[in-house]
Amino acid sequence: MKLVFRDIDKHGVGHVVLVPEESEDMWHAYNLVAVGDTLKSTTIRKVNTESATGSTSSTKIRTQLTINVEAIDFDTQACMLRVRGRNIEENQYVKMGAYHTLDLELNRKFTLHKNEWDNLACDPTQHADLAAIIMQEGLANVCLITSSMTIVRAKIDTVIPRKRKGQCSQHDKALTRFYDQIIQAITRHVNFEVVKCVLLASPGFVKDQFFEYMMLQAIKNDNKSLIDNKGKFLLVHSSSGFKHSLKEVLQDPSIATRLQDTKASSEVKALEDFYNMMQLDPQRAFYGIKHVEEAFRQGAIETLLISDELFRAKDINTRHRYVKLVDGVRDGGGIVRIFSSLHVSGEQLSQLSGVAAILRFPMNDPDDDDDNYDGAGGDDNNA
């Protein structure tokens, strides 16, 4: 994301002009734009004109609109951001107060104004340095795992006829077509200049058979991209070819060393450490905003795990609550892991209210005597 201009006063009021330069920047923009903000961008508007003779014609005009944001929609597959709201500035093509949807586009600047900015902003320096192909016979998901999310770039779902005694041709032909589709998806979506490791996971020997076929085809077709990066492929076991199997793959100890430099690995490791702490020393593992805030007041937080979804709360006081917690933990020398709600590990953290902490020392339950408190795993993250 390119920052073109910034004008924010000491009270946090102001605007920035940004240019998204790559697809993932749309996700960063999604984390920045909130309901109640003001967004200015160019858009295409269909305009009907009537001539002196009474005939009408329709033309598409590119114009600039400023809307008060009321709804935000992020398409994870296409990495597109659509923002809907009412027009708040005079425009010759759009009436004041009329609803309009702005589609934010790559390499086209937009201006975002907030009545209050906080210091939790996007980090555009991160890239998708990990890819994964989760597969089984007839099903494969080609994923890119970025600092923010797991993106399914291609899903191949095809019928593979059963292998029958003496009649293998249909089965083998279908399997070859299936493998070829996966190779095409890898070639199209995996940037080996950025990707450090490609996980190839499946039940049984599907991954081994595919990898052998892929390398034979790469040699046959002189596909230097695959040949030169053969060493980046890591074959591991998964229970299925569905996306949810990615969790167990990322937790496999045999691949931890290869993934230690990636954001995805650190998130999964932090969550795994939290679960282990819950089992071994539950007084050092808190979750739920009330429990975590009390641990913070006692200076007990060693590692804070928090979902980025909490920073998109509509209520500004709620957002302040989580921003203050994050800033405080960092200032106190603690580690903060911000999980994406679109990442596998982020989905798991959301089931624990979206906020959890590993403590430096054991603490008793701060609300044991509070009959009105429904437990650390309740819905207090929305408080």
Summary, kept brief:
The protein has 383 residues and is an alpha+beta fold.
CATH architecture of the largest domain: 2-Layer Sandwich
- First CA to last CA: what distance? 32 Å
At the first level of CATH, what is the class of the largest domain? Answer: Alpha Beta
The CATH topology of the largest domain is given as: Nucleotidyltransferase, domain 5
Gyration radius from CA atoms, angstroms: 25 Å
The shape, in one word, is flat
Model regions low in confidence, pLDDT < 50 over at least 5 residues: 121-127, 371-383
Oligomer: single chain
Q: What fraction strand?
A: 25-35%
Main beta sheet: strand number and arrangement?
7 strands, antiparallel
Tally of structural domains: 3
Mean of pLDDT = 83
**Can you identify the CATH superfamily of the largest domain?**
eRF1 domain 2
Q: How do the strands of the widest beta sheet line up side by side? A: 1-2-7-3-4-5-6
Helix content: 25-40%
* Protein structure class: alpha+beta
GO molecular function: metal ion binding
Main location: cytoplasm
Family: Belongs to the eukaryotic release factor 1 family. Pelota subfamily.
Cofactor: a divalent metal cation
Describe the structure in your own words:
This protein has 383 residues and is an alpha+beta fold. It has three domains: 2-114, SH3 type barrels (Roll), CATH 2.30.30.870; 130-258, 2-Layer Sandwich (Nucleotidyltransferase, domain 5); 264-382, 60s Ribosomal Protein L30, Chain: A (2-Layer Sandwich). It contains ten helices and 16 strands. The strands form three sheets. A seven-stranded antiparallel sheet has the order 1-2-7-3-4-5-6, with helices on one face. A hairpin with a 5-residue loop joins strand 3 (38-50) and strand 4. It is flat, with a radius of gyration of 25 Å. It starts with a strand and ends in a 24-residue tail after the last strand.
